[in-house]
Protein: dolichyl-phosphate-mannose--protein mannosyltransferase
Amino acid sequence: QIFSQHNAEAPNLEQAFHRMAQTEPNLDHDVSWFLLPPYWAKMVVALVSFLCFANSYDGDFVFDDSEAIINNKDLRAETPLGDLWHHDFWGSKLSSNTSHKSYRPLTVLTFRINYLFAGGFYPVGFHVINIILHCTVSVLMVDVFSILLGGLQFSTKGRRLNLAPKSSLLAALLFAVHPVHTECVAAIVGRADLLCALFFLLSFLGYCKAFRENKEGHTFSIFWVLMSVILGAIAMLCKEQGITILGLNAVFDALVINKLNVLELIQRLLHKDKSLENSGLLRKGLLFRITLLMSGGASILYIRWRIMGTGPPAFTEVDNPASFADSLFVRAINYNYYYSLNAWLLLCPWWLCFDWSMGCIPLIKSVSDWRIIALAALWFCLIGLICQALCSEDSHKRRILTLGLGFLIIPFLPASNLFFRVGFVIAERVIYLPSIGYCILFTYGFSLLSKQAKKKKILAVAVLGILLINVVRCALRSSQWRSEEQLFRSALSVCPLNAKVHYNVGKNLADKGNQSAAIKYYREAVRLNPKYVHAMNNLGNILKERNELQEAEELLSLAVQIQPDFAAAWMNLGIVQNSLRRFEEAEQSYWTAIKHRKKYPDCYYNLGRLYADLNRHIDALNAWRNATVLKPEHSLAWNNMIILLDNTGNLAQAEAVGREALELIPNDHSLMFSLANVLGKSQKYKESEALFLKAIKANPNAASYHGNLAVLYHRWGNLDLAKKHYEVSLKLDPMAPGTKENYNLLRRKLEQLQKKGG
Structure:
């Protein structure tokens, strides 16, 4: 497991490690910051990171949580565990054309474990795990930053030394309290980023362990190099960005372990210098390790490619408008503008939004757009940093800047649109790993300022102020993520041009029953994006319920015209056409919906209602039967079958269907009620009574339940109980049809019986 390689022309790597403290300046020397023992430093980081996001622990399932968790069948016990390895993050088959190809089975597995332990969809357990994961990652950052900022050195006993305790503490605190991380922690789906970061860091620390001196005095351990590859693969199975750690490990090896001077290497390559073997690049140890990393990475990517299929994910123009621009210039300039906005979120994370698509950031279409300044500023800073990283005579400065830029840029590459189209404009969650590089550069910049500043304490107070402001911002942003209403409304001031923001505010209001306010936001969403079919569909639904059928039909017709395969809009259009008594058109719309979504139980249910209105009873029963086959718990379809069979005199068949339904949905009181009615007509009074009483126990305030039980007692001859339940029914609903007449008949009968008895 141990590979031994020494170079006769170069000093032993272990000796180089032990000389590092003397040959390189100590970053902490100029940093005016707290010096704490390692254990206390980690405790402080853990506590601060917990305080930032603790108020999100009792938040709801919000935004993408609904699709990834609540509607994801992979979380349920009845779904075989093996399905997780063939489905995407959202529970769809990877082979499906609609799959986003986000392959994160280990993250979904943790959701499933959360669900099983909680016994259902209770968000507290999910949120607590996210908070713990962020605290763990932040604590690991103390060790990671101590290596990145102070170098890698071991004691004679093989323990790694922290050569920059103050700087590593500051950088870890910056990471722990960065407000841009709120989405990863407070949104449950952000667990993908948290788990990815955890194994990402473990891979890096494992790679560093490969160079710990062992008893045989060998230079590095193959076991830990391979272990870092395995941990990188696990990180990728949590989220795609995880694979980038293998590239960063290679960069770290070249810069820190082999102290490669990149500029010198480039010059030698350009001049075809024969002394390349002395540069450190061609040392067998480095090449061997990089070969292991790259081979492992290529194998992992190939296996993932085979699992997810060869087709790229399908995204729409509203998801990422720049990627659909015809002009290469427009695409390039907007991609770079997106990079500058990501950089700004790291520098000033004040304007945060759950979604940056749908017009939130209008496209730059000409060089006269003032936003070009942002691109120029970004590249001016990057080029300046790259020049310093390559050309500085200070090897310590070169190493820190290169590592900072590496950790800033390399983890961001999968989200950059350079290799493939991504499904977003800006996503705060993808900055979780790149923020490591930002923290390195910030801390190094602080050390340079401290070196020049005469009043170092004032500078330290300023940095402490930044940390405190970030803590407050994290707490405020976490509270906004606790509910969809707060989250969606918080985005209105940040992205007022984002149609999806207005759509989500409208949907939230509609779910709460505030239809008038919902209409306003849906209309604004359609105004901002005239092709927003989901907003048209939801607005059409509300207008249909308010009996504004003409406008509802216009909106739904436009939606299916824009997106002909939009099954839900076709079904809703059919419902409107049915209400307008245009039955043939309604039937055609329903079948079109089923054509585009073959497993559509709700559409079969509505089709059955149409056939029932047309007295096509057999067709209606077949449609409802299809609905129950596709969705066995479809209570409305079962009920309608029982009622139709009951009304047409098929009592035996109605009873059989009712019993079948109750076996599948044993606690549905509406099914108990319908079957009880059938049994009463079949003179099975005792069984009918038991079902009526069970239904009333489940729903005691249903006037019809008491009224029909009273009718049963009336037929049965149990007149006192009939009188009691008639009175309860009338108390609950004085206008209940037929109940008052039946009650008056019963009273007259009781009066006659009393006269006879007298």
Summary: Confidence is low (pLDDT under 50) at residues 1-23.
